[in-house]
Amino acid sequence: MFYFLHCSRRHSRQGGIKSLSAGLFSLCSLFAASSFAASSDPVDENEKALTPVIVTAAPMSDPLTVVTDAKAPRQPVPAHDGADYLKTIPGFSVIRKAGTDGDPVFRGMAGSRLNILSDGDMVFGGCGGRMDPPTAYIFPASYDRITVLKGPQSVIWGPASAGTVLFERDFKPYQTPDFHLYSSAMFGSYGRDDQAIDTQAGNAYGYARLIATRSEMNDYEDGNGQSVHSRYKRWNAGAAFGLTPDENTRIELSATQSNGRAAYADRAMDGVKFARDGVNLKFEKSKISSVVEKIEAQVYYNTIDHVMDNYTLRNLQSSGGMGGMAAKSVNNPDRQTMGLRLSSNLNVTETSLLTVGVDQQGNRHRLRTTSNQDTDPYQNKARMDDATFANYGLFSEWTQMLSEVDRVIGGLRGDFWEAKDKRKGFSTSGQTRNDTLPSGFVRYEHDFDKHATFFVGLGHSERFPDYWELISQNKQSVTSDSAFNTKPEKNTQLDVGVTYRVTPDLQLSASTFYSHVSDYILIDTTIKKNMMGQAITVTRNINATTYGGEAGVTYAFNPSWKGGVSLAYVHGSNDTDHTPLAQMPPLDSRFTLDFDDGAWSVGALLRLAAAQNRIDPGKGNIAGQDISTPAAGFGVFSINGGYRFRKDLRLTAGIDNLFNKTYAEAISKSGFMVQGYDQTTRINEPGRFFWMMLDARF
Q1: pTM for this entry
Q2: I need a surface site. Which of 227, 287, 680, 693 has the fewest CB within 10 A?
């Protein structure tokens, strides 16, 4: 997993300098609006840029833990959704579908194998075809911190097969009345236009926080100048109000709302509505007694209302139709999710800490459709339930100090699952299934000195099949018309690694893993066909093995110059079919060089990805399947630069894919024949991309 902090720079790409100059006036306006709060003092020599520009990500702060600033500038171009940001962290890949809403993949594992939480909420998408994975509803600039927990090495946030990602908001008690503001504006090629604002104000008795983000982009072009059906527009707004009756108590009520639309290059429909509404109530009480360090409680409710059609964002004929006569088709799924969590940190002894808790989550999925919006509008139809899911979890996690340099961390978790097939006309219609699934881990950590930590951990996680594996798009099993009785997936994984700060200027980090997955849930389109000879999507269980890891090093040549290298690799095998495990990304490496003198910064990023010849066409996960053509390797070079006007105001700009390389990620979706666009084997990444960003914090 390796990541590197990188000095002051920023993001953008190509498509024309026109959009940059068009945005210059707005940038200047933001500068004027922000500068009144910026210090008029010159930049202190000991005070570096606001935050480093992130090129690969932060180094592991603790064993198997990565923490990074969600608002920090980064290259490639600043992220507009959660998956877009995660791909900067070695070990992560993204399945590209178009300009937005890619599916994040960690160590080759996608979907519900990766827990995604936004400020403690569990958000599930509605689309049966994964137009809206959880990260589609996450806007990085509205969060303060992103924490990645690798592997099944924690039980606090739910059963984690590949890992857990926490998009978090910080809270610092106000001692006196105070006000904070973060704002940014970014413009780039292909009409990229982003704004974000995050305001906070409070005193010793309470606080308020208002957040808003907006992002849009037109169709981008690949390195060959071919336009990709990929335009999008998204917005998000949220508010939080808290009471702090004393310095150890907090009660917070928050609400969020977002919406947007997005064109897709991999399918016959586009997303024209991504409406999310959510509310969240939190209670925290700390320093209750010498034993009870902290109690936390949270209740949340989210609704997702998603609409996709074949005519709003594309030529109607592009979706085909009998005799060339295409009709306006619409799908309108929605999902309601309610959850709660209660936990407590207990100081059992002077050398041991116990975290215990319970959590619950339930969701309901519904759908309504029409094959002809003109004659039979979907709005006039009733929403029909197709599935409900519920989970009740109990967890405990123990940290025991064995000495000043040795400790053991372990945890146990039990999850009680229930799912109901609410569809009609299937062999499992009306059925209810229940499963009790255990998870647990133990990890040993040893500090060689103040700067080095070795760790080894063994974890086991059992995952209940999700909606996309059991229900969506009427998936079948090998022997039945329904996949509803697919077995749970069981992952046993060994993690070994080290973090080492050799000197203040030289940092090393490495993390490796070996995983055996029993009853791995494979999505397979190769073994079953309908009467017309078309492939039927089948969910089936196999046994699988994966291994790999991430490594990185950063070195400061002097106070202004820093270089870094990171590597990420995963190898997967389908042990049942004796084939490669599908949807595995290839070896990925990144090389960085940065200059930052506290005022000016310049950076360069070279990313190299190997070819991926280990494929298994037609098989994969809920987000995508391998295609028949192996993926070629590629190298992409990007540069950035920035200037810090004052201690809290910075302008950054960059060029991603400087040499206009035509390339596609190995796990990218295959291109669909959208009328007016050239179909490609895989959906290509953007070509040369210019960007410019101004951000301020005070």
Answers
A1: 0.90
A2: 287
